[in-house]
Amino acid sequence: MTRGNRRRGREAVVAEVGGGIASLVPDPDRSEAWALLLGDAPQSHVDLDDPTHLEFEYQRRLGHAVDLLAPPGRPVHAVHLGGGALTMARYVAATRPRSTQQVVEADTALTQLVRSHLPLHKEWRIRVRGGDARAGLARMPAQWADIVIADVFSGARTPAHLTSVEFLAEVRRVLRPAGWYAVNVADGGPLTHLRSQVATAAAVFQERCLLSDPAVLRGRRFGNSVLLAADRTLPVADLTRRTAGDPHPGKVEAGRSLEAFTGGAKPVTDVTARASPEPPPGTFG
């Protein structure tokens, strides 16, 4: 589809995909931007004219991680578990040209819809594979990735098998020694799931930090947090400045404050794993 055709066809696109009814809805404020919804739940936002534009709060925080992972513009190897509208893969391609990226998305019908209506640039080195995120990760070579980004939801919940120590051990295997793991975690008060995910990361990685909305961290609303983990020191000060400067300012917890937040939560194993909590009614308006 040409850009001219897209401009003339600024109407919502609705299709049935593996996860239900998907809608691509034009953004009235940006001439080439679209939101992806599954049911009534917002999944992604893409601006075809400006792939560096990140509309959602949690995606901006993932963008901060991508920006600080390596010197500006340096190509990286990135793995994306969960594709959606490929927002973060587009961001990496635009900010770090010549990067090589692997995307694992279970919903192949959703991928076809996105690629048909929101096409990728031909020069971007992005390969999208269908299948389960953990199974796809297991097929990747050791120490291949500079960053693994996990943003996997099924029916607005992260599947249980993507929350355990065993799963994070597989993530760590795929990462290079200096690589980062970044995951989108959705939870609300009393934040049992989020605290357990921090504890699970602590069982596998040497360093962690948490980027979130202060209201979410206080359990006042259901929302998304980004958990970063690595086996090297994370740039907490830079992450804090960038997160505080967002249109919707956030907070970074690290070190002792993150330990206090975790509050003795136990790491999750494959035996004890549960899917992330269901968003409460009215979360998506």
Describe the structure.
β5, α3 and β6 form a beta-alpha-beta unit. The protein has helices spanning 3-8, 57-69, 87-95, 108-117, 133-138, 165-174, 192-202, 214-217, 236-244, 255-262, and strands spanning 13-17, 20-26, 33-38, 41-47, 77-81, 100-105, 125-130, 145-150, 175-187, 207-212, 223-230, 251-254. With 285 residues, the chain is an alpha/beta fold. It is globular. Strands 7-6-5-8-9-11-10-12 form an 8-stranded mixed beta sheet, sandwiched between helices. α2 (57-69) packs parallel to α3 (87-95) and α2 packs antiparallel against α9.
Topology (elements, then pairings):
Elements: H1 3-8, E1 13-17, E2 20-26, E3 33-38, E4 41-47, H2 57-69, E5 77-81, H3 87-95, E6 100-105, H4 108-117, E7 125-130, H5 133-138, E8 145-150, H6 165-174, E9 175-187, H7 192-202, E10 207-212, H8 214-217, E11 223-230, H9 236-244, E12 251-254, H10 255-262
Parallel strand pairs: 5-6, 5-8, 6-7, 8-9
Antiparallel strand pairs: 1-2, 2-3, 3-4, 9-11, 10-11, 10-12
Helix pairs in contact: 2-3, 2-9
Q: Tell me the β content.
A: 25-35%
Number of helices: 10
- Taking the alpha carbons of the first and last residues, their distance comes to 32 Å
SS-derived structural category: alpha/beta
Q: Major β-sheet, in short?
A: 8 strands, mixed
Share of residues in helices: 25-40%
SS elements, strand count: 12
- Oligomer, anyone? single chain
N-to-C SSE string, H for helix and E for strand: HEEEEHEHEHEHEHEHEHEHEH
The parts where pLDDT drops under 50 for at least 5 residues are 1-8
Mean pLDDT: 95
Q: Indicate the overall shape.
A: globular
